[in-house]
Amino acid sequence: MSFATPVVLAALILLPLMLAWYLLHERGRRRAAEAFAAPHMTASVAPTRPRWRRHVPMVAFALAVAVLILAAAKPQRVVAVPNPQSSIMLLTDVSGSMLAKDVAPDRITAARTAALKFVAGVPKEVSIGVMAFNQTPRVLQSPTRDRAAVRSALANQTPGGSTATGDAIATATKILAAQPAVNGKRPPSSIVLLSDGVSVRGSDPLVAAKAAKTKKIAIYTVALGTAGGTITVKRPGGGTSVHKVPPDPTTLGKVAQASGGQAFATADPAKLKTVYKKLGSQLGRKTQKQELTAGFAGGGLVLLLLGSVLSLAWFGRLI
Q1: What's the Cα-to-Cα distance from 56 to each of 27, 84, 277, 312, 319, rounded to whole Å?
Q2: Among residues 136, 130, 140, 134, which one has the least CA distance to residue 160?
Q3: Of 120, 126, 258, 308, most Cβ neighbours within 10 A?
Q4: End-to-end Cα, the chain, rounded Å
Q5: Helices (H), the chain
Q6: Do residues 152 and 124 lie in contact, with contact meaning Cβ atoms separated by under 8 Å?
Q7: What pLDDT digit, counting tens, does each position of 171-187 carry?
C-alpha cells in the first residue's frame, strides 16, 4: 500500500499528543476523586467503578483519528484489472505427433480441452485469436471478443503433417502487430504457443521469437507430451511403422526467454489445464492504482461513532 499525499501522515504526531493529554486528564480526575473522598472510603462512595470501560471510548477516538489521517493521505494499492485493448493469439500445434496417446486421451484432445480452460479464464474485454499450425500456419479466428467464435475455432482442429513453429510465430506476430493503435499506441499483445514436437520446417523459431520481442509481444510456451510418446504411421508400400515423437521443451523454453515470456512443460492433462487457467488469469490484464480513501474514511467515522455511543451509554458524556 502507498499514499498519494504522504505528507499528510505527519499529522499522526497528534496521536502521542492525544495520549499525553489523556494521561494528564486521568491524573487530574484521580486527584479530584481523592480530594472528594479518602482512598479507604472509595469503595463505599463508588461501589461500581467503570474500570477498563473508562478507556474504551478514548481508544476508539484515537483509532478514529489515526484512520482518518490515513484516509486524508489518500491510501492506494496496486491491483490487476482487465486491459480492454489487449489481444492474445492462441497457437496450437496440430502436426501428426498430436495423435500420440501418451497424454490421455490423446495430445490434441488434451490441448483443446486446456485451450477452452484458457479462454474461460481470459477477461471478456480481451480479444483472442486462434491459430492452428503444422507445416503451414492457419488462422482459424482473428482476434475477437466473441467467445463463441473462439470456441468454434478451437473445435476446428485436425492433426496431420509436420511442424513449422517459426512460421506460426511469425504469422501471429504479424497479426498482432497490425492491431489498430489506441491513442497512438499499439495495444499490448501476447502469444500462447502449445507444441509437442521439434520444429522441422520453415523459419527458425528463435529468430521469430526475437522479432516478436521487438514488437513487444511476449510468447508463453507450453510443451506437451512425454519423451516416450509415439505415433503409428502408414508406410507408402503398405503396413505401418512406429515413430517416437518426444516434445522439445528446451527449444520452447528458449523461444519464451527470447521473447520475454515464460515457458511451461507438462505431460499431465490436469496440470495442462492448470497452466492454461493460470495464463488466462494473467494475460490481458494491466496493473493500476486503486484508491482506498473511501474505505478508510468510512472506517474512521464508524470508530468515531462507536466511541461516542459507548461514552454516552456508559458515562452520559462524549469524553
Answers
A1: 17, 49, 49, 12, 11
A2: 134
A3: 126
A4: 33
A5: 14-36, 42-45, 56-72, 107-121, 147-155, 165-177, 205-214, 249-259, 269-282, 293-315
A6: no
A7: 999 999 988 877 777 77
* Beta strands at 87-93 and 189-195: parallel, antiparallel or unpaired: parallel
d(CA 296, CA 271): 41
What SS3 state is found at 253?
Answer: helix
**Which grid coordinates belong to 92?**
496450437
- Contact assessment for residue 187 and residue 89, using Cβ atoms and an 8 Å cutoff: no
Pairing mode, strands 87-93 and 127-133: parallel
Amino acid at 304: L
Sequence-distant (6+) residues with CB within 8 A of 158 are 94
Residue 20: which residues within 8 A CB-CB, separation 6 or more?
A: none
Residues above pLDDT 70, as percent of the chain: 84
Per DSSP, the chain holds a count of helices (H) and strands (E) of: 10, 11
Residue appearing with cell numbers 496440470: 271
pLDDT for the residue 313: 78
